[in-house]
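Fig. S4 source data, part A: sequence.
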Amino acid sequence: MKITELSPLVRRITADNSGVFTGPGTNTYLIGHDEITVIDPGPASKEHIENIAKICGEDIVQILVTHTHNDHSPGAKLLHQRTAAPVRGMKALHSEMQDPTFKPQTILKDGDVIEQVDYNLRVIHTPGHASNHLCYFLEEEKTIFTGDHIMDGSTVVIAPPDGSMSQYLQSLKILKDEDIKYIAPGHGDLMENPHAVVDWIISHRMFREKKVIDAITELNRASLEALLEKVYDDVDPRLLSIAKYSLQAHLIKLVEEKRVVQDESEFIWKH
């Protein structure tokens, strides 16, 4: 177990669930010392939950969840059973690929402020990666805990129907209006220059969207599989099954904007 002191108010402990989707593992953040808020207790790992409980003792006042994917929220039930601390978050609009054990005592919404003696956390609803994705902004240190909205070292997967590319891009733009100093991602290390990070992600997504449009216009009409090979020709072939989700999200966005027409299993550029 490794505890990383990130600031006077923030500590990080990473779950032992490294992988393709999770990078070095899911980050659990501990905010405060006398009144500790746990953000994202991670997967249903008894060892990880026990480590959190040992560090915090009886000082946990609440458990916050950024979203209900299986690497972020299942630990909430175990930690609640271990400490009785209330679980807070938002429920997803779709059940696919969600944590069925998530039973929050409090449903959070955009703009809620969670006040503790030494710090305040403001809730920012950032749908896109998931419909119920929340970021938490630590006012005192201008640090935002982004879950899977922004990750270190990788772009995030947008998987319909609960994931939405159009909502994701809009949610990224919302962060540009915030006075943020640090990004504390759900996977990877603390990130500086947050507005530059956001700009890069938006630029990368628009680059990928242009490749989608170019591929459709070149092929005239194309299936998802045909587009996948062209749009993600710069990606390790072993990751194409994952990239397929984000390609679907790009296509849904283009159909919503009436720039592309879907004809059964094929996509056509609308001239």
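Fig. S4 source data, part B ends here. Helices lie at 46-56, 74-83, 165-175, 194-219, 224-231, 240-256.
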